[in-house]
Amino acid sequence: MPIAVFALAIAAFAIGTTEFVIVGLIPEIAGDLDVTVPSAGLLVSMYALAITLGAPTITALTQRLPRKPLALVLMALFTTGNLAAALAPSFGTLLAGRMVTGVAHGVFFSIGAAIATSLVDRSRASRAVSLMFAGLTVAMVVGVPLGAFIGQTFGWRAPFLLVGALGVVSFTGLALLLPGNLRIGAALPLWRQLALVASPRLLALYLVTVFGFGGSFVVFTYLTPLLTDVTGIAPASVSLALMLFGLATVVGNLAGGAASDRLGATSALRIVLIGLVASLAMLLATQGSIWAISVNLAVWGVFAFAISPIVQSAVVETAEAGSPGAGAIASGFNIAAFNLGISGASAVGGAIVAGPGVGMTPVAAALSGVIALGIVSLTAAKVQESHA
Q1: Which is higher by pLDDT, 6 or 301?
Q2: What is the pTM (predicted TM-score) of this model?
Q3: What's the rounded Cα separation, in Å, for the pair 169 and 13?
């Protein structure tokens, strides 16, 4: 695998840490800045909304810019946003810093997935994307639990300073390892970009992303209060639970890429989504036991993060087959779909926490997975009919 893919993975590690570390800090931020836990959850949903709006828009506007300088500018913006969050005097300022970071995050992943697939032959495209996304999942193993521990020990601002330092390391890695002659696709007019969203195949993949991947965040956004208030895990041990979940996401991410290359996107998605729905539903039964929910978290993490490389590589391949050079734009829309799902799911989770209680969040998450599975099955049936 080209070393440039590892440079992308390093940056993905930093980005993944800042996106998900907030999950372990929501109670501390809510208490320190005098807001409710559902209000603090906006730091997840609004971050995701910034990605949703920024990824396709900024990716489209920058499609003719050289890839390496653009990646470096995005990493610099990412670092600045994290430092602003660390120094934020109020909740509003913190939220603004998170949204700036979110825009940089979304565009980086949009161009990063297209860069990764352009660096390898078609037979290894899914593996290249999964390796890049492995940086995201390694962040779940190391960055997020470590950030949660540091935040609980030294205050919630400390992890943002740590991520700012990671941003500097990532900038350096990209500058040294990313090739300067990366291919730039042909610029697409606005109507062609919008047509990507209207394409039935791509639209189905985007909806699978929204409901399949995003649905897990009904639970994940409020995983810390679920573990402490319902399961009875000590707050100091939450970082261990997050590390367990993170280890599982690494396995799921790599397995998803391999399954997609071997079985095809449709078959791989069916298997993964069935496992996801089952593991989310089981949280209702296991949330009362520390040992049972620990096993459940591992299984859920595998299936939840196996979705990403399958859909992302399928989106790039489908777009390039129809319009050569459209991979980055299509990828941008998929990053937007990822985070539209996260934003919506986090909002739903907040409503459930404020209403029936955090213990009921797995119900909505499982139903979201069922919707994604239905979309995959319906799309596969239509493809078979068209070939009949």
Answers
A1: 301
A2: 0.73
A3: 11
